[in-house]
Amino acid sequence: MNMSHPRDARHHGNDSLSPHRFLYELEQPIKAKIEAIARSYGAGSVEYSEQAETQIERYARQGFGGLPICMAKTQYSFSADAAVKGAPSGFTLPVREVPLPALHQTRTACACL
Fold first, then answer.
1. Does residue 93 sit in helix, strand or coil?
2. DSSP state letter for 97
3. CA 55 from centre of chain
4. Structural domains of the chain sorted by starting position, each given as residue range(s) with its CATH number in brackets
5. FRET partner for 34 with CA separation of 20 to 30 A, picked from 54, 71, 72, 84?
6. What pLDDT, in 10s, does the model give residues 41-93?
7. CA–CA separation, 73 vs 53, rounded Å?
8. Which value, to the nearest 10 degrees, does the dihedral of the CA atoms of residues 19, 21, 26, 29 take?
9. Is the pTM of this model over 0.85?
10. Using CA atoms, how far apart are residues 50 and 77, in angstroms rounded to an integer?
């Protein structure tokens, strides 16, 4: 099994393997994918830095819009604020940058909060 490709990813919740399912369709725009992930964490909205906006626009022009998105966030809270414990909802999730690990074969764009 090649875990680096989304079609081949599997999860091991029981004895049978089931296909990996994203929270979004791969054909959706990059921002729609990021916002779907943010909503799953309880965010009410997403705020993009100028750098993130520029990166997203460039990746879409370069044909990378169909990549899956992997988001990194604080380990202490579902929000972007480490001081807010637990699972808050309705917060604004800031996205500082959206690096494309082009030198890796993960085929994933990462949104950094």
1. strand
2. B
3. 14
4. 33-112 (3.10.410.10)
5. 84
6. 889 999 999 999 999 999 999 988 888 888 876 666 677 777 777 778 888 88
7. 18
8. -170
9. no
10. 25
- The strand pair at 10-11 and 18-19 is best described as antiparallel
pLDDT tens-digit series, residues 3-19: 444 444 444 444 455 56
Task: Give me 87's structure tokens.
Answer: 């699972």
Does residue 113 contact residue 81 with C-beta atoms inside 8 Å?
no
What would you measure as the largest C-alpha separation in the chain, in angstroms?
Answer: 46
Look at the block and give the residue holding tokens 């997203």: 56
Closest CA to 6 of 56, 71, 67: 67
Per-residue DSSP letter, 13: S
Q: What is the DSSP string of 16-81?
A: S-EE---SS-TTS-HHHHHHHHHHHTT-SEEEE-HHHHHHHHHHHHTT-TTS-EEEE--SSBSSS-
Q: Which position has the token pair 């949104």?
A: 111
CA distance 17 to 21: 12
